[in-house]
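Thread: Newbie trying to understand structure tokens

Hi all, I'm a second-year student working on a class project, and my supervisor (Dr. K.) asked me to get a predicted structure for one chain before our next meeting. I've only ever worked with sequences, so writing a 3D structure as a token string is new to me. If someone could post the tokens and maybe explain what I'm looking at, I'd be very grateful. Here's the chain:
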Amino acid sequence: MEHVNIEHTPPAAEEYLALRQTAGLSPMSRQGAEIGLPNSLFAVCLREEGELVGMGRVIGDGGCFFQVVDIAVHPEYQGRGYGKLIMSEIMDYLRKHVPARGLVSLLADVPADRLYSQFGFIYTRPKSEGMWWRQGEDGLE
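---
Reply by user tm_fold:
Sure, no problem. This is what the structure looks like when written as tokens:
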């Protein structure tokens, strides 16, 4: 990890979309990325020799609700502790900026849930059940 540079700015839309694809995350639209990335509350990018190799963001209203999203590490760089580094940077931000009773959530793909549990995230079940809706995937168009 001695050659990784940590940046607290969102990635460019093109590299964001490319890393999501390479890391196996669901695809997003270029339009959505161009709108969403600048609206991040916090972002962390890991770069080696200028190349984006890992990222994560916090989105939300900045007071009551926060969501951790886009945690991704390029497959060639996995197993080096980069996921933990990204989450450590995010947790530093959250500890400083989330007011009392503020809620931080995330949707965890398995087996990434093991990473998030190391940072104190717990399953919402049985108190609540996660749900989601995505434009164009509801059959209501």
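A couple of things are worth pointing out once you decode it. The chain is about 30% helix and 25% strand. Helices lie at 13-23, 30-36, 82-97, 113-117. Feel free to ask follow-ups in this thread.
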